[in-house]
Model the fold of this input.
Amino acid sequence: MAIRLSDVAARAGVSVKTVSNVINDYPHITEQTRAKVEAAIAALGYRPNVSARSLRKGRSDFIALAIPEMASPYFAELGAAISRAAKRRGITVLIDQTEGEAEAEKLVLDGMRGQLIDGIIFSPITTAPTRIDLAETAKPLVLLGERHAGGGLDHVAVDSVQASFDATTHLISLGRQRIAAIGVGGGAGTGSVRRKGYRRALKAAGLPHDPSLELAGTGYHRDDGAASMRELLTLPDPPDAVFCFNDLLALGALRTLAEAGLKVPDDVAVVGFDDIEDGRYHSPSLTTISPDKEWLADNAVALLLDRIAGTGEAARCDLTVPYTLQIRESTCG
Amino acid sequence: MAIRLSDVAARAGVSVKTVSNVINDYPHITEQTRAKVEAAIAALGYRPNVSARSLRKGRSDFIALAIPEMASPYFAELGAAISRAAKRRGITVLIDQTEGEAEAEKLVLDGMRGQLIDGIIFSPITTAPTRIDLAETAKPLVLLGERHAGGGLDHVAVDSVQASFDATTHLISLGRQRIAAIGVGGGAGTGSVRRKGYRRALKAAGLPHDPSLELAGTGYHRDDGAASMRELLTLPDPPDAVFCFNDLLALGALRTLAEAGLKVPDDVAVVGFDDIEDGRYHSPSLTTISPDKEWLADNAVALLLDRIAGTGEAARCDLTVPYTLQIRESTCG
Done:
């Protein structure tokens, strides 16, 4: 049988209103009264209706993280880091997998249809950040991902152009001449910004730009990387290096190279992007751009909590995530 | 400025109570009235207070999935599958990473502190299922994982003893004589039930049981598998096969074998458990026990939704997830 407010009041010898005041942290309650009510709550195992309480206090200490796919190791590792960063601040994270679908992303912008969450960290795919109207979002929102929101929204991301420039330049510095790129058609702006960095590096080194070495692929998964690599191997003059726009593509490409009996990095050097754990344990281990995921998680959570509390900067923030190039066996065996 | 119920009422030319009745789907409202109110809601962009509405209707169409760690590919893939299975039924899944901590698992049993969720799919680590009192759980609950709940709770799991017997028997059928096991100390009952199947298979084949070939490890991650494999290679008589109690351990072990210059499967054959995508793309690809994750996801969601709707079996269900042994290069190169 459910314990009610009136049961607590009867046991504590106070009015229902007083019990309610204690539960809702109202001021002007004596320590003695508070202690009596709390003892009665504990003795009866009363569970306050937190939904209603949160609505009144206006805070739940839950936030949501909306990501396109949790089975992608980058998002899984990022989600775990954001969950830990929030927990250090006493906040619980609920993760929503949108699959990049318009309907699911709309639910995010609508504040998760009335869930008791204080704010949302959102990595959009279908929704263009520039089309998100801040006045229309139901909850404080921090954006992740390649595309800037034009100053309208807080945004945390890696400088993908510069990172891709560095990854490509690393391959050039090893003397590679025919450097392919896999993933130039990637969604949510990733393909185009990383291609920009790749092309800039080729140009800076005076290497020709060969369109047959740029593969769009159909997605950012292992099978897409494997298929793109097979396509590259059919070229009359195949590449001697590949910059894959994420680690999953690179791991798929490595599988194709192994099946073809080609040596990595001797025949083909491979660089990825994300530094997922899988690449560190792979043989050969994967050279990759390593965004500081802990930094990203910590700063995205702090930024969102500042917005929720109303203590943040007045201007919207655009934070750039630090990264390093992790050189491993796939380029320097 | 927030649109209020009274604004909608004024525009529709009806009472506030009528607007409220339409929003809450009360019967006895004429189609004409409903159309007027819905037109006013659309015109003003009114967003009903769904929190309050859900409390009255008693359903939110959100469920939670509580897992120990989302960066573990098995849980990431399972979470993605459960999210899809729920979406097919119009339900949104919110994922909570407990890290297996007692406090976070208690939050799950308490019904996620008032979140508007209809039920929870829960993979516990610290909380012993037999100690979960159904009368104390705040929400309908379906348990995942190795440990049975003694009939008190709905439970969905692989028959890990039989699956481990099959994995070990596969190695025996290849003529391997010294078969090690990595992960026997694994948490949440996994280590002990899989060891049971491993030992049974050795016994059935008349192979001796050598305690020095059973490694507990400190966890179920790649680094634990790599460290355990290094330990096995220091033995005077190292193993010619290893059954790792999950794929991450196996991938770590494969890395150690590659670094040691040993050939897989010629020198050491390796079997994992989980069939994560990483193992399928690895070189050599990983032989593994493949639980049907889609089946698991679909049945766990269906079972929970039946409980929520009150339409399920009266008796608690214990569902056994089908699995196959996927034979790949790590045992049959």
